[in-house]
Specification:
By secondary structure, this protein is an alpha/beta fold. The chain has eleven helices and seven strands. The protein has a seven-stranded mixed sheet with strand order 1-3-2-4-5-6-7, sandwiched between helices. Helix 9 links the parallel strand 6 and strand 7.
Amino acid sequence: MPQAFELAVQIRGKGYPILCLHGHPGSARSMAVLTDYLSQSFMTLAPDLRGYGNSQTRQEFEMLDHLTDLEALLDRHQIAECLVVGWSLGGIMAMELALKLTERIRGLVLIATAAQPRGNHPPISWQDNVYTGIAALLNQVRPGWRWNIERFGKRSLFRYLIQQHTETAYQYIAQAAVPAYLQTSGVADRALTRAIRQGYNRLPEIPQIQCPALVLIGSEDRHITAASSLETAQHLKFSEIRCYENTAHLFPWEVPDRVLQDIDRWIAQHVDLKAT
């Protein structure tokens, strides 16, 4: 069995545990839009996955090593069962955990993710990179500055990550996206690249998942298309779908109130938390 890496983790609140898994690039900070709210009623555990955030390593690893790390994290904190909220790559890890730890995972909230992820991102030009660099730098200095959004943000690669160029979305980009990008290691990049090249596809296996799932989709997602997320939902036995119009891959930062309301309602209706 592979040796587990001890993950840095942010634990907040009390009550039924919810494991919150970030995407690539990402970190626990990326999940604050969810944990700030969920930790008011639940105990949230938001780890930095191996090679991300404060869980840095120089040793090469494979994507499935994340599962070893996450199982060890649950063991270390004596979590017998939990819900899992996963965003993008984190959603893939959530489904993998549900397949591996059948008795411990009681429900899944899958955000902008797919069991066979497909994208339709257009080619990136040098102008895209220039505008993105300028927009990101100015946004760090003055988060949500409307002039920067109109002049550079809407012409940058941010236009493929969000559709609603609000001040709130850009504040989240400044607080979480840019720091997470800078803290994503080369070994994490290479692990993901290898998995993609191998043609990741778990559609045949995910019908085995027995717990309920809420699948949240951005209608204009270019990184993991809405069609691939919908395909995943259709392969899950007990899934509910919510698609947010005029949003993209970072839709929890575009329409946070709607996302949190849907998660809250789904937990109340579909997950029995009395078993703990």
